[in-house]
Amino acid sequence: MTTRILIVDDQDEIRVGIKAMLRLDPSLVVAGDLSDGLQVVPFLRGHPVDLVLMDIRMPGIDGVEATRRIRKEYPSEKMRVIVLTTFDQDDIVLAALRAGANGFLSKTVSPTELVAGITEVVGGGGALSAAATAALIGHMTESPPPVIDQELLRRFDALTPRERDVVVLVASGLGNDEIAAQMSVSPFTVKTHAVRAMTKVGARDRAQLVSFTFRAGLYP
């Protein structure tokens, strides 16, 4: 299957560099590239796009607001958004995820990591760089919710003990390979448990699963 990608970044050299990295996978097709967040929604209205690679710092409106506008007009998760930036502060990570982003990757990722992140997000998962994950978890642990979300906690009751164990390890910042080694199972088994857990609690991706876990009071 072909994945049609829109690149949004105010720096010409960044857009050129991303295009070069995407050539690693012939299934990834650049549908267009823009330099201004204000142009995104008008472009999407006239062009079929599966995923948007979105910069944060841009003229007009920033990537968070542009993502929020995408979600307002295209609430379906079929329209995926990955935020690409050099900034990994917790407030930016949270703002992007709350706006509806499906992933958050650093511009310093390798071409292989970028393609892998896109593949994960298009497949229904989420992609967070190591720095973004650390920022998100750091914010959650430093500022736990004052009141446990009882509705979310009830959703977690539907998880099997194994799924619950995987969820807590995901919330601690471990990747599939690390969780697999700790639980003595395969990475595929870990991913299967994580996907089932996301379905049961209503999380759209791993990033939201982490957020739900903390809001339900299930701290690693």
TrEMBL record:
Single GO molecular function: DNA binding
Record-linked Pfam families: GerE (PF00196), Response_reg (PF00072)
PTM sites of type 4-aspartylphosphate: D55
GO biological process: phosphorelay signal transduction system; regulation of DNA-templated transcription
Domain HTH luxR-type: 152-217
Keyword DNA-binding: yes
SMART domains: HTH_LUXR, REC
UniProt xrefs under SUPFAM superfamilies: C-terminal effector domain of the bipartite response regulators (SSF46894), CheY-like (SSF52172)
Tree of life domain: Bacteria
Record bears the keyword Ribosomal protein: no
Record-given protein name: Response regulator transcription factor
UniProt source species: Streptomyces acidicola
